[in-house]
Design brief:
heterodimer; A: 166 residues; mainly alpha; 7 helices; 70% helix; B: 294 residues; 13-stranded mixed sheet; flat
Chain lengths: 166, 294
């Protein structure tokens, strides 16, 4: 039976709001736009609540969010701002090491912003949202092979940019 | 899919970090990344639910389209207005150490001294001859209706004549070369005749005795006459004429009568400094003037 009721919708929201918002953020590098588009995405799903199938709703969310992004912007180069929860192990903190980590962190973030959007989205969905390649493939409508390839490209590009920056 | 708990902190030691390959570094680091918080999830949910319940979704959509259309029209109108007023607004600016001569739409000739600015409205100029001056300029005004020069220190009104206007900071001086000029500030006004100079002082506009008009406008030939003027205003003129900056570490309360040309900086400095017992040092574009040690 297609269709979802309100309680199922709220459940879906709680589960998927952050990943969808992250998805838009990975594309645009703008957290306010990400919030906006993620909310619009869920509203659109609700508008079509009669035809929704719960098994396919996740790919649908990503498709809608992706289209809303396309409608709004073209973002070739974005600036990502991640907070990093890395901390140095206690008692071993030397200022030089702190510095080294900080520098690496900055370079990495800049390099991520310079990645090709497709590679960046896949890479960050895996690293930050913790999705498996299979889950990514299903959600954004790719083959697992394509996801693997984009991961590999992203990693390769990041290494290159970071090494070049050093 | 449940959300990952990102609050657990990962620890890393220099030894571990050193041993990692570039791949491992990148993967480990990015795993620890958190996206910016943005709007809290429950707040977002409430927002979405209230939109659903009020059915405002499509309404707000329409409204925003109307707003967008209205904004587009407004921008277009403003744009046309802005562009036309930008085109009709004219401006002449001289930099440091630069003079320029140009004529206004009514064929009046203006010679601008260094570091000065004149603005006027091209479209309206022939009906009301009105312009704004900051700095110093000489005007050879064509006969016709009222010609008004506004400055922040006061207004000058002329009927076909030649005159020199100086308005910088709080200094305001108008000299009449030929014809008749009315000079007004907030509190007072004076009518001056050829050779006379009206100057803004603490007592309002005062008239000084007639002098050789040639000296007043000699700056057009690069010659600067100063009669009993504060030494700092002479340094200010030197700064403008030679595009340098002068630091004066001496007694400011003294007056000087001097003539210098804007062809040679050292010569001009000597003319001011030697009679005043001052020394100067030139370093690139900065000149320091100080009292000669006794």
């Amino acid at each position: 039976m297609p269709g979802i009721d309100k309680s199922r919708f709220i459940e879906l929201f709680n589960e998927m709001y952050s990943p969808v918002k992250n998805y838009v953020y990975f594309k645009t590098g703008d957290i306010e736009i990400a919030d906006d588009i993620a909310q619009d995405t869920f509203l659109k799903v609700w508008e079509r609540k009669g035809e929704i199938r719960i098994e396919t709703v996740k790919p649908l969310l990503y498709t809608i969010a992706g289209n809303l992004c396309k409608n709004r912007f073209d973002h070739q180069k974005v600036v990502m701002e991640f907070s990093n929860n890395f901390r140095t192990a206690e008692n071993t903190v030397s200022p030089e090491f702190e510095m080294e980590l900080k520098e690496f962190d900055e370079k990495l973030q800049r390099a991520i912003g310079e990645l090709n959007e497709k590679n960046r989205v896949v890479f960050l969905m895996n690293r930050i949202d913790g999705y498996t390649y299979g889950e990514i493939a299903e959600n954004i409508g790719l083959s697992v092979k394509a996801v693997e390839k984009r991961m590999k490209n992203a990693l390769g590009d990041l290494k290159k940019t970071i090494a070049y920056k050093i | 899919m449940t959300e990952r708990n990102n609050s657990s902190q990962q620890k890393i030691s220099p030894a571990e970090f050193g041993k990692m390959s570039p791949d491992e570094k990148i993967l480990k680091f990015t795993e620890g990344f958190e996206t910016p918080a943005g709007m809290p999830k429950n707040e977002a949910l409430n927002k979405v639910l209230s939109k659903i319940e009020n059915g405002t979704q499509s309404k707000t959509r329409k409204l925003t389209y109307y707003l967008r259309a209205a904004a587009a029209v407004a921008i277009l109108i403003l744009g046309i207005y802005g562009v036309s007023s930008v085109f009709s607004k004219s401006k002449m600016v001289t930099e440091m150490a630069q003079q320029t001569t140009f004529s206004l739409p009514d064929k009046s000739v203006v010679v601008m001294n260094a570091d000065s600015k004149i603005t006027w409205n091209n479209r309206k100029f022939n009906n009301s001859r009105n312009l704004r001056l900051n700095g110093e300029a000489y005007f050879d005004v064509q006969k016709g209706n009222k010609f008004v020069i506004e400055t922040k220190n006061g207004t000058v009104e002329v009927l076909g004549t030649q005159l020199n206007v100086f308005s910088r900071n709080n200094e305001f001086r108008v000299s009449c070369i030929s014809g008749k000029v009315r000079v007004a500030s907030n509190t007072s006004e004076q009518i001056i005749l050829p050779g006379e100079t009206a100057e803004l002082t603490t007592n309002g506009i005062t008239k000084s005795a007639a002098q050789n008009p040639g000296k007043i406008i000699a700056w057009q030939q690069g010659i600067f006459y100063f009669e009993d003027k504060p030494v700092v205003s002479i340094f200010a003129e030197l700064e403008r004429q030679f595009n340098v900056s002068i630091k004066f570490n001496g007694m400011e309360d003294r007056y000087i009568t001097a003539t210098f040309s804007n062809k040679n900086l050292k010569e001009a400095l000597d003319i001011v400094c030697i009679p005043m017992d001052l020394k100067y040092e030139i370093e690139n574009k900065t000149i320091t003037v100080y009292e000669k040690p006794k």
